[in-house]
Amino acid sequence: MSEDARNHLLAWCRPGFEPECAQELVDLDVMSGGGGYPRAARGGGFVEFVARDAEAAAGLQRQAGPRGPIFARQLLHGIGQVGNLPREDRLALLVPVIRSDPRRWCDAWVVSADGDAGRELRALCRALNAALIARLKREQVIERDSPWRLHVALLSPARALVAATHVKHSAPWPGGIPRLRLPRAAPSRSTLKLEEAFLVLLDEDERAAWLQPGMSAVDLGAAPGGWTWQLARRSIRVTAVDNGPMDAALMQGGLVAHRREDGFRYRPGAPVDWLVCDMLEQPRRVAARIAEWLRHGWCRRAMFNLKLPMNKRYEEVRLCLELLCETAGAGLDLRARQLYHDREEITVFARHA
Ligand SMILES: C[S@@+](CC[C@H](N)C(=O)[O-])C[C@H]1O[C@@H](n2cnc3c(N)ncnc32)[C@H](O)[C@@H]1O
Q1: SS3 257
Q2: d(CA 202, CA 208)
Q3: 10 Å Cβ neighbour count for 65?
């Protein structure tokens, strides 16, 4: 059983988006030779993917990252599967599977699915995680400098997939979910989307270089100002475009100019460092508008949301990204992800490389 699991991948995703996540894994697999197939239950919060062999599975896992799958928050490569975990001592079956792999681990995470599906297992995960770490330390297989991270995906009280990721190709948060606190001064919860987008879609060096005090930005669909607030708190000057009212305290900071205009018509007087956009609009219309900004060089980088339709969500995403690639001009660096703080939407970063 544990040998088969090396052909397996497990993708954590937003519950309800298993079909999109599965379709995307199929497409990625086809591009690298194919032969795999997905297994998912709607609402489960994860997709299992059985690749044609262990090498193919490892190759797919290496594609995870900011330019990797959109609907997979984290992509794990299987080591072994365990069913019939005994309630009184789950480690008794898990540890031998873990020890069948010669690697040392920088850390070990026991995680269940996001949402209702995994909620009942969360307390169990915490308890099991503490016990597992203690046990692995005793067995001297925790080595903080190791590039490998161990995952135990608890899929039910009795079933788990033991899996691995390389730290370079994996989000540094259990389940791919950065737990962010809503800052008290932020005008809206939406602020967390942009904060997460900066964390997930940019690396540390990019954040340092591209989010500098004194830079300039335009925020289309800015009201009440959660996204603008993220920029202003980094001392970036923002033109906030929206007919709706902006948060009064944010406007008093002196870094934000409010323009009551249509975001589809507004043009900046001079190129800006950032265009951000969270307008509630048809995704194709937004994608076309962002492409126009990039093509004309009105912004150096863009971070924006595409609100997904009820049906054919995966097709719509592909279409929008193709439209961007075709119309924004050659050499586009495009990264997209359905973030934890996204709902029926995805977040996209784009710039000319
Ligand atoms: C989800 S809210 C934005 C929330 C904002 N990002 C925040 O963090 O507080 C969407 C906004 O898009 C604005 N909007 C929709 N269509 C627009 C348009 N054509 N031009 C400008 N703003 C628009 C709405 O007025 C609304 O305030």
Answers
A1: strand
A2: 10
A3: 17
Q: How far is the CA of 47 from the centre of ligand 1 (A)?
A: 33
- Integer Cα distance of 204 and 242 in angstroms: 31
- Section 225-248 average pLDDT: 98
DSSP 8-state symbol, 105 = B
CA of 15 to the centre of ligand 1 (A): 26
- Please, are residues 334 and 325 in contact by the beta-carbon 8 Å criterion? yes
307 has catalytic annotation: yes
The per-residue pLDDT for range 318-351, each reduced to its tens digit, is 999 999 999 998 899 999 999 999 999 999 999 9
Distance CA 241, CA 262 (A): 7
Nearest CA to ligand 1 atom 23: 221
The secondary structure of 280-341 as a DSSP string is: -S-HHHHHHHHHHHHHHTSEEEEEEEEEPPSS-HHHHHHHHHHHHHHHS-SSEEEEEE--TT
- Among 310, 266, 254, smallest CA distance to 290 is for 266
Query: In the numeric block, which tokens belong to residue 332?
Result: 């586009």
This prediction has a pTM of: 0.95
Complete DSSP assignment for 212-234: -TT-EEEEET-TT-HHHHHHHTT
User: Over the stretch 6-40, which tens digit does the pLDDT of each residue have?
Assistant: 999 999 999 999 999 999 999 999 999 999 999 99
DSSP state of 36: -
In whole angstroms, give the CA distance from residue 284 to residue 275: 17
User: CB of 49 within 8 A of CB of 58?
Assistant: no
